[in-house]
Design goal:
heterotrimer; A alpha+beta; B alpha+beta; C alpha+beta; B: alpha+beta; 5-stranded antiparallel sheet; 4-stranded antiparallel sheet; globular; C: alpha+beta; 5-stranded mixed sheet; elongated; disordered N terminus; disordered C terminus
Chain lengths: 697, 336, 232
């Protein structure tokens, strides 16, 4: 693998991405399921409209807290085509909480039954915001007071981030095709195996009589981890009862309400620091708004990437009348890093130091300094003006943030089959949620075997395959790559041993390269000829239990350049440079896509997204894509992904790290442009205007 | 959606007749269908008949938009896309093209009609959620007053605090727009100035327009306004509703404003004329930025912001000033 | 292609039972089958349909009234007539997905706010979730399944460029974005980057692939990917 050339000219066009060229095992391969996805041939769980299917919807509480007063099950059952109506719950504690279900012969009848059920509710008082539950700010602790007194400068500030639903485009749910004595479960999931485990005996069938299938997933971002969930479980129960296919998918509103979210955060920061930027310490109190979830509100703050001195921190989960959180792409990180990066920018501004120089001084790992240098060149940091010194209507701002991600070692299992017809099938029961996992598996196997990718068939997304990892924790590529490599090498060894045995030779004389079998370095057999010599069932390679992936953590930095229309308070993102290490890049195109996607989601979080619960009755009033605002094409900056392969071995994490620093870097850029920090996400025009008028937002 | 039948009348007259056809309990008129289908899906209306005029044109095979002696004639069922792409509109009354190009998305603009845009119901999230028995639905209260009102009205005295959702209505207002109708009280239909098409909630909270139940807009006319412009401030530049919007039509003598018509959108339950701004703009040179800014500050006279939307007071003068600059062919700071 | 949609969906509105006024479903399909050849709005075929209805129903001055019971319709999808039996309260998206098994039209927001269900109706980009299926009768509907043409099918340049530029991740928004790109390029064969952004502004991609989509649209219109422009 060729390292990134640090002597690359200051700015290179990315039309052909020369910066990244040669960084990966495979620079030009397009994802294997691309054609299926662009032609509509790819069938997702939600697309499985089977003949004779039962359509199911959950009955849900429309308020943040309410008691069910009445419902008219008889009227709902009387709607033609309705099979059953069941209301078991009496109380709702968040908008979207299920209290029963309706099942019908068609989606139209199902929706009409929900209306005919005509639930009436008695509303109760709700708490929707962290400040409703924890209004008070704690007084500084004695230790903090001491630090602040010895410091030359101090920062005391409160920051906040909103609840962010994952907003997967394919909603949560599944189709259970029950055929009486066997079943297939089409699940939209990040854990095919975990759905199978979680269903247990709810289908009335032994585990051997059903399989879970997940060929394609329309987004998950963490929310589709952890078993079948209430959607697939309910579908399973009804499918088993009627011995018919059962279909249950959330609609857009339900997806916003009851399929998890990134919890909100409020953070109180008290820091003492010196004029040279040395941070002495202080305290950081954090409150995570977790709805009815009970926990999961923690934020990665401090991140550990900067020396912040002696900082005491506290974490509280705050219960409100909202749906609970689920892991959301880099849980706890974007919100914590938003606070940390903006806080550092405020420290830098008070100390009169360039924020990049402050970070160079404070970072705990030198790799960031090198990344800062490259990123500063690519974004044009030299054009940065001091905070708040511009007087034009459109003001430019530059910001920076950093990210890292840990490594937990490979897991899962795989098989590689070489068939007599020359085809190669690689199997592992993981799934591709859009990361390119299917393609990565194929590339790893093709390279390890020495054959072209086109002979490789990748099979994933079935519970009958060797169990693979869930698509979470940015571990799938680094887990399955060494596993797949190991299984492929096993198949290869068996293959060569059989060939050698047939010729009465030593296996060491044989090799496979570019789809040719070599003997003593000379072309010996074509791939087809060699495979024809295999026994009927070919050879099957299996992985060793704990192959050494030789990997470690990944790191990254991002630079954001914005233009702020100061009178209107509108932010126009112009340019993002996202430098990301991830060890050995398997597939350049899908790797770059992960970075671009992380940046876009991070920008959307920074500028637009927020769950809005009515403060009086707890209803999410923007449970749609009209007022729950997701970044669109006209809000796009130029995004420049830079794969940093220098000096790193093994396949490392890439899915989550790129979403982490974007909001923080954007906040820094806005601060730079308007001269005031906007301490609350999303950074909407009302908040920018308030910040410019005086103080923070 | 509930069960309904669908009628496909061949003329507006037939359509009007169907709206009062005693055989149906609740006939509803549908053209492009964007707002009607939304209502059907949310369970806000449960008609037994949709009267589908999507394919009707008052002038038969005539083009959807034509230049008249004094301005423009626009078929009621002309789509927003047709208006936005029309060279005639861009030349004769550019504010209309700019207003519709700023509305919704390409998909919606291809379906939504001119009259449908004028007569669409508000996007207030309490109105749109079935479970809120708000004033507009015959209930006892406006939930926005004590609730989430960041996108609600800063003008008008309630009791309902919607903002009128149409981009086209304020734009037509500044071009002296009129709608031609058929049905209703007068047999031959009538011509209604845009200003008289709508009423504030205190004059009737259940609906926003003054048309009779069987009255159908068939055509829209407006005067030429070559020096006109539209500007909206939006949180998101892709497919978002304006936080505030301004439509302006100027009569210019050189750089000097002889007269101005100014109407704000997204700030009141009806298109909100700004007569004081109009008066202060008179005689001002568009190149005298201090005078221009001073005139635009009058835009918020009489505003009564709610708990969460006072920011609109800062935005409205900005939008008005930029609309003036656009109308007079000047650049705004964001064009730089 | 079409499978049995199962028992007729129903759900009576109080006070509105009884037979459909106007016409019944009978023979509707033949009439529309003829009209499918005509593409213009308010076509002669629609008039022919209306005349026939008026004779059958004795309705006022020949007004065509369909439903509320399911009616048989023939939709012209990807150049082929396809039959479905649907209530008037059926969107084109539901007709495609539930009745005609064309699931490339994705159901995401169901309110015209995300573009995932985008199809072309008489060449115009349309949110299939916000169009009643009956309103598509007589029009030419193109879905993502109909873009690849020839035998064997050859990908549309937009599709090819999406794959080459990795302009997709999970793929759920992809058919809608491909249709939006196709519609844009049909109207404007050489759009600028700004025009591409504007043309695609009704579509949401949650995975965040816009950068590559822009490049795909540029290349599909014979232009070099120009994402190297700063601030582009």
């Amino acid at each position: 693998m060729r390292p990134i050339d640090q002597q690359t000219p200051t700015y290179m066009p990315t039309a052909n991405r020369p910066i990244n060229a040669g960084t990966s095992m495979n620079d030009n391969t397009s994802r294997l399921d691309g054609v299926a996805k662009v032609t509509g041939a790819a069938r997702y769980g939600r697309d499985m409209h089977l003949p004779n299917a039962i359509y199911i919807a959950l009955v849900r509480c429309p308020y943040g807290a309410a008691d069910l007063e009445s419902s008219d099950a008889a009227a709902a059952k009387a709607v033609p085509g309705v099979l059953e109506v069941e209301v078991t719950g009496k109380e709702g504690k968040y908008h979207g909480q299920p209290i029963g279900h309706v099942a019908a012969e068609s989606p139209l009848a199902m929706k009409r039954a929900l209306r005919a059920l005509n639930c009436t509710w008695k509303r109760k008082p709700v708490k929707t915001r962290i400040s409703d539950v924890a209004p008070d700010m704690p007084a500084p602790e004695d230790k903090t007071k001491e630090i602040l007194e010895s410091a030359e400068l101090k920062l005391e500030a409160v920051y906040s981030t909103p609840v962010q639903p994952h907003s997967s485009l394919e909603t949560h749910g599944g189709v259970v095709d029950h055929k009486g004595d066997r079943a297939t479960v089409y699940a939209s999931t990040q854990g095919t195996s975990s759905v199978k485990d979680g269903l247990g005996d709810s289908l009335g069938l032994p585990q051997s009589a059903f399989e879970v299938v997940c060929e394609y997933v329309g987004g998950g971002f963490g929310s589709k981890l952890g078993g079948p969930g209430k959607e697939i479980s309910t579908a399973a129960r009804i499918a088993a009862k009627y011995k018919r296919p059962a279909y249950l998918f959330c609609n857009r509103s339900e997806e916003h309400l009851d399929t998890g979210n990134r919890p909100s955060l409020r953070a109180l920061v008290r820091l003492g620091f010196m004029k040279d930027g040395t941070i002495l310490g202080g305290e950081i109190h954090k409150w995570g708004g977790v709805g009815v979830g009970g926990g999961g509100g923690g934020a990665s703050l401090p991140s550990g990437r900067y020396r912040l001195g002696d900082v005491k921190k506290s974490d509280s989960n705050v219960s409100t009348n909202g749906g609970g959180p689920r892991p959301a792409r880099a849980p706890g990180n974007p919100q914590g890093v938003f606070v940390e990066e903006l806080m550092l920018d405020e420290v830098a501004a008070m100390a009169g130091i360039d924020p990049l120089d402050l970070r160079r001084k404070l970072v705990t790992d030198d790799i960031y300094k090198e990344m800062f240098d490259l990123g500063a060149r690519l974004i044009g940091w030299q054009d940065r003006r001091a905070n708040g010194t511009q007087r034009t209507g459109l003001r430019t701002g530059f910001g920076v943030g950093s990210t890292n991600w840990g490594y937990r070692g490979p897991q899962g299992s795989a098989e590689v089959v070489i068939n007599r017809d020359g085809s190669v099938e690689v199997r592992t029961g993981t799934q591709d949620i859009g990361t390119g996992q299917r393609t990565i598996m194929g590339i790893v196997a093709a390279e390890a075997l020495g054959v072209p990718l086109r002979v490789v068939n990748v099979r994933i997304g079935h519970s009958t395959l060797p169990p693979g990892p869930g698509s979470g924790g940015s571990q799938t590529a680094y887990s399955t790559s060494p596993i797949m490599n190991s299984a492929t090498r096993d198949a290869r060894q068996q293959f060569l041993t059989l060939l050698a045995k047939g010729d009465g030779a030593d296996a060491a004389e044989f090799d496979i390269k570019d789809g040719q079998v070599l003997r003593k370095g000379q072309p010996y057999l074509t791939w087809q000829e060699a495979c024809a010599k295999l026994p009927n069932d070919g050879v099957t390679g299996k992985n060793e239990a704990h192959p050494d992936g030789g990997a470690g953590g990944s790191q990254g930095v991002q630079f954001v350049k914005v233009a702020v229309d100061v009178e209107a308070g509108v932010v126009h993102p112009l340019h993002v440079v996202a430098i990301q290490s991830c060890g050995r890049v398997v597939c350049r195109k899908t790797a770059e896509s992960q970075i671009i996607g992380g940046v876009i989601q991070g920008l959307s979080y920074a500028l637009f997204e927020r769950q809005i619960l009515d403060r009086n009755v707890g209803t999410m009033v923007n449970d749609n894509f009209e007022f729950y605002k997701v970044l669109g094409p006209m809000d796009m900056p130029h995004i420049e992904p830079v794969l940093w392969a220098r000096g790193q071995t093994g396949v490392r994490s890439l899915g989550e790290p790129p979403i982490i620093p974007t909001a923080g870097a954007t906040a820094g850029a806005i601060f730079n442009a308007i001269g005031r920090p906007v301490r609350d996400l999303p950074m909407t025009p009302d908040r920018l205007l308030a910040a410019m008028e005086g103080g923070a937002s | 959606m509930n069960r309904f039948a669908m009628a496909m009348p061949k003329s507006y007259k037939e359509a009007s007749g169907l709206l009062t056809d005693g055989r149906f309990t609740l006939p509803i008129l549908k053209a492009g269908g964007i707002d009607v289908i939304d209502h059907l899906k949310e369970g806000l209306i449960r008609p037994d008949l949709l009267v589908d005029i999507r394919r009707l044109r008052a002038q038969g095979a005539a083009p959807p938009i034509s230049q008249s002696k004094n301005g423009l004639t626009i078929e009621a069922t002309a789509t927003l896309a047709e208006i936005g792409a029309s060279d005639v509109v861009r030349r004769v009354a550019p504010v209309l093209a700019q207003a519709v190009e700023n509305a919704a998305s390409p998909q919606v603009r291809n379906a939504a009609t001119a009259a449908g845009n004028l007569l669409q119901r508000p996007r207030c999230w309490y109105y749109r959620h079935e479970q809120f028995d708000c004033l507009k639905k015959g209930g006892p209260t406006c939930y926005a007053v004590e609730g989430e009102n960041r996108y609600h009205a800063i003008f008008g005295n309630g009791p309902c605090h919607i903002v009128h959702p149409s981009n086209l209505a304020p734009a037509l207002f500044v071009c002296s727009g009129m709608v031609q109708t058929i049905g209703g009280q007068s047999a031959g239909g009538r011509q209604i100035p845009i200003a008289d098409l709508f009423h504030t909630p205190d004059k009737g909270v259940r609906d926003e327009h003054n048309l009779a139940r069987d009255e159908i807009v068939t055509q829209i006319t407006c005067a030429a306004a070559p020096h006109s412009g539209f500007y909206a401030i939006k949180e998101k530049q892709s497919f978002d509703w304006p936080l505030v919007a301004a439509s302006v039509a100027l009569e210019l003598e050189g750089a000097t404003i002889r007269s101005a018509k100014v109407c704000a959108g997204a700030v009141a339950p009806v298109p909100w004329p700004l007569p004081k701004v109009e008066a202060m703009l008179r005689g001002v040179s568009v190149d005298d930025d201090a005078a221009l800014r001073k005139a635009c500050t009058a835009a918020t006279d009489g505003a009564k912001p709610m708990s969460e939307n006072a920011y609109k007071l800062k935005l409205l003068p900005v939008a008005v000033r930029r609309a003036v600059l656009i109308a007079s062919g000047r650049k705004t700071e964001v064009d730089a | 292609m079409a499978h049995d949609p199962g028992p007729a969906p129903d759900g009576a509105v109080p006070g509105q039972n009884g037979p459909a006024r106007g016409v019944t479903r009978r023979s509707f399909v033949q009439t529309i089958g003829i009209s499918a050849a005509a593409t213009s709005l308010g076509s002669a075929a629609a008039d022919a349909l209306a005349r026939q209805r008026s004779q059958e129903s004795g309705g006022p001055e020949g007004v065509t009234i369909l439903g509320p019971d399911p009616v048989e319709v023939t939709l012209n999808i990807n150049g082929k007539p396809m039959m479905a039996t649907i209530e008037p309260a059926t969107t084109l998206m539901e007709a495609l997905r539930l009745h005609l098994n064309l699931t490339g039209c994705k159901d995401v927001c169901d309110r015209g706010a995300c573009g995932a269900c985008s199809v072309l109706v008489d060449g115009r980009l349309t949110a299939a979730c916000m169009l009643l299926a009956l309103d598509a009768v007589g029009s030419q509907v193109t879905t993502v399944e109909g873009l690849a043409k020839g035998d064997p099918p050859k990908l549309d340049p937009v599709q090819e460029c999406f794959v080459r530029h990795d302009a997709l991740q999970c793929g759920y928004c992809t058919p809608g974005l491909i249709m939006a790109c196709r519609a844009l390029l049909n109207e404007n064969p050489k759009p600028t980057l700004e025009q591409i952004k504007h043309g695609l502004s009704g579509n949401i991609c949650r995975c965040g692939t816009y950068t590559n989509i822009f490049n795909a649209a540029l290349e599909a219109s014979g232009q070099a990917p120009i994402m190297d422009q700063k601030g582009a």
